[in-house]
């Protein structure tokens, strides 16, 4: 006896395309199940299918995620998959959504789907109608046998032939790919923030209005002091002359490290008081700067009059600002900018209570974790992207402290899409945490208050397209305080340095990375209630250090917690390139089982937010031994002698208030400080490198 197996067993997609609802149910469910959604497909009537989707119970608390945002994305995703299936048996879909185990529906929606296959089917039906009409007419002609019947026959047949040709009129590929649904609702012109309603700034003037990609630029510390004026004179275009990347960006941002004021109030109370003439704002406008961060340690150098004059100067120049204000409401107010349909929220915090704004008191926006959580959660359902700026850390340190890493990751857990840091005056590393980028320090950009005029740095470029975020470092060389993006060996050297200082993290961020954004990362872990401050005692570490006072009993240290799972649906592929849309699969055939659509052709591979970074356990911090245990350090003793470092600031007078002696470098290479992966932090403490120069 000879047994022969069937040589051509149909695949799941072929069965689903032929109208097998069991195969169609398996295919749709296999696409949605990895995202925590279960689907059941049933036939409803001829040409229409009914799909019941059930969400996991973890999404029950987030009504915004289960509302209009998720509904629109999920409906588009299912309809696009059915369009790709190209089945002549599917002409429409009715989608019902509910929580698993709940009898009540959250929402339902019916959509008509136009595919090449059912378009040809309708054309065939119309031709059958024409043939049937011709047959009836011919039979009537034979029965009547009159000239009038012949005339009527000619008019009738011509009408139906023209009607049939209308069904095969050429249409564009985008019209073929369109899923017939209602227009999206108009977004409001204001956003409800944590303390107030904030208007949305509509940015219409962009360099490339027809490019759908939104480009954001982030630079480090900018100081428009006398040293810059000595090089540029009154040429306000000189500083950014070689930075076309800033003028071409849709939204460009820097950290402004000096008030723009003529005030003298408060001068001499600090060792270093920075200010620039209000006319210097033309340097920023000429460079294409749209937004500045004022949440830093120099915003209040000339007290409230200096800050108010700075804010008025920026407003008159058309430059947005955040992180400081006349009271806590203005200091805490986010900037909401909408450009090319993308709505972006910017937040800025200074990690100290020094000169903190309060009710009726001008100052900076202090970082307190429960406030950070409240600000992000208030904005999350109303904007597309949330970017948080922190002015933090230790000057001239190559690596962030453990408390900074905890704070940055806590910020991402609350729903932020990007964390950008500044203040250390040097570049620090960057990492990817839960699919979101964290850049700990961008270093100095154009810093006229520095004795050193030539140095290497980098700026951060972020590109937003659909639901994708592209993040890349642009290497920059600064010569005589004038920056320019460099390529070749110089650019490779700077990017190599960024790669080296980022390698300490569990998942370092490279020079360029593509990230897939969530539909609405509205995870809402509870605000930590621990009274500890940054640098507070952990297991095996010392207690809080100086410069870290508690304020109003508010928490400043995130507690570990499991964030709620975030739904990520695969992005829709690009519109078809040609009229032949019978198949989106390679070689015109579909695989037996397909779990996700093909990636977009014009973007590198993505890193998904829900992709497990360490399947076996939680991702460990980059080191078990903290490099920095306290957020601030004390200045060196006045008794120390020596010469100023090239990294030191220019003093307001020729006489320095203190000097720091440089240690002689040994002839042999000293042992480097490397991250310690041991679990016991109490075995030893790592010393900080010597601080060179005067600290600003």
Structure explained in plain terms:
By secondary structure, the protein is an alpha/beta fold. Helix content is 25%, strand content 19%. It contains 14 helices and 24 strands. The protein has helices spanning 12-17, 21-32, 63-85, 116-144, 147-166, 173-177, 226-232, 244-248, 281-286, 303-317, 328-332, 369-380, 402-414, 488-502, and strands at residues 37-45, 48-55, 92-99, 107-112, 190-192, 197-199, 201-202, 214-223, 251-256, 291-293, 320-322, 324-325, 335-339, 342-350, 363-364, 385-391, 418-422, 430-433, 436-439, 444-447, 455-465, 468-479, 482-485, 512-516. Strands 8, 9, 10, 11, 20, 21, 22, 23 and 24 form a 9-stranded mixed sheet that branches. Strand 16, helix 13 and strand 17 form a beta-alpha-beta unit. The longest helix has 29 residues, at 116-144. The termini are far apart.
